Amino acid sequence: MSKPLCLVIDDEPDILELLVMTLKPMGITCYTAETLAQAQEYLLEYEFDLCLTDMRLPDGNGIELVTTFGHQTPIIVITAHGNVESAVAAMKAGAFDFIAKPVKLLELRNLVTTALQLPKPENQTKPPQKKEPENILLSKLVGRSEAMQTVRAKIEKLARSQAHIYIKGESGTGKEVVAHLIHALGARAKQAFTPVNCGAIPTELMESEFFGHKKGAHSTAHKDKQGLFQTADGGTLFLDEIADLPLHMQVKLLRAIQEKQVRPLGAAKEIPVDVRILSATHRNLAELVKQGQFRQDLFYRVNVIELYIPPLRERLEDIPDLVTKILTKLKSNEYHQQTTISDKAIKSLQAYSYPGNVRELENMLERAVTLCENNIIKHQDLQLPEATQPNHQEQTGFHSHMEEVERNTIMNALTQTQGNKAKAAKLLSISYSTLRYRIQKHQIKYK
Q: Which residues, other chains included, contact 294 with Cβ-Cβ below 8 Å and sequence gap of 6+?
């Protein structure tokens, strides 16, 4: 195998020499440039595996290289110390990552190693074309709608960077699936993908769960334990329902992200960690910042780039494809025969608003498969509300009735589990965070 090829761009000869001296022992062949124009000539002539560029150059800005060549070459931008705005701008333009001056050589070597693991584009000589992606992983996101094509295109682009991404979307839209795809298509694909539901961790155990502990750090610490950051080291940490983190943990999380170090409970020193953060919540983080329930500085850290996942009601044309996939999955998992669905039932599904999104559609079809006869799902098997377009008075009455039914169902589950929320969530077949949200919504107090 030939040596990796790297283009290093800086107008200060001392820094150029330092960067080259750091990369050569890693088996990397380096070309150097001191201007934007010279760098552009090299990038047009050669297929580089990596590019390091200073932000400020005598004849332009390093972000111009990111915009033009970032789709084919991972570009690491070197920014001035503390210049967060420039770093964010570089990441949004498509940079692989950034590193601040003065450059820490160990951090640079780790970053370069990760960048060189990034899969190469299928066609490196042409800019990406607007077409339906053929990547087999992206086929997990079902739907031909324009909304889903946009999501898939963004995932492909975001996978080629190390930016922290905030995935915004309602419950049941598939935020964890999207997070896993960003990881699987990126440079960290061979490392761990570690998902965690922030709302499911008891407050008193959060610090230990995230950062680990040493034996004897507290009464239940019978042996050393790695935290989630250590488990995800070199890979991706997905923080689902990040809005559920209490303020004191938000402060500690911010420090871990900024310093790239964590201190296990009871440890004498901090441990370096290399983790990409993906986060998600069904709540409005920006609104929570205004209300003082979520730290603004943490919001800016995790929300370098926002990825919006549309609700199912905004892409109803994807229903037939989703139904086909779900029914096939049900057949392979639990049922011996393939179930089909009538045209009338499909039209009924396309007239529904799906407050629970794809997850609700899955549950609806699983129930219908059980109820239907002759392996054909008909309209009545779906058990949809009779009126798809009720007047305002009917809608209000129906909504109130359903709210009361939901509240009573949750109360009954809590009674059966003697107030154990985790067991109640399992009994109701919903996530722990969803149950907590419903308890708060209905102001349920269980003693």
A: 243, 250, 285, 288
397-442 — its CATH code? 1.10.10
Element (H, E) at 422: helix 421-428
Q: Are 366 and 330 in contact (CB under 8 A)?
A: yes
Q: Which contiguous run of DSSP H or E holds residue 50?
A: strand 50-54
Taking CB atoms within 8 Å and a gap of at least 24, the contacts of 75-78 are 75/50, 75/51, 76/50, 76/51, 76/52, 76/111, 76/112, 76/115, 77/53, 78/10, 78/52, 78/53, 78/54, 78/103
Measured in degrees and rounded to the nearest 5, phi and psi for residue 120 equal -75, 145
Task: Compute the Cα dihedral for 145, 146, 148, 153 and give only its sign.
Answer: positive
Residues of the chain with pLDDT under 70: 1, 82, 121-135, 217, 333-336, 386-402, 433, 446-447
DSSP 206-259: HHHHHH-B-TTSSTT--S-B--HHHHTTTSEEEEETGGGS-HHHHHHHHHHHHH
Dist. CA 18–CA 11, nearest whole Å: 13
Q: For the whole model, what pTM was predicted? A: 0.78
Residue with tokens 């390091």: 52
Selecting from 3.10.400.10, 3.40.50.300, 1.10.10.10, 3.90.1150.10, what CATH number does the domain 141-308 have? 3.40.50.300
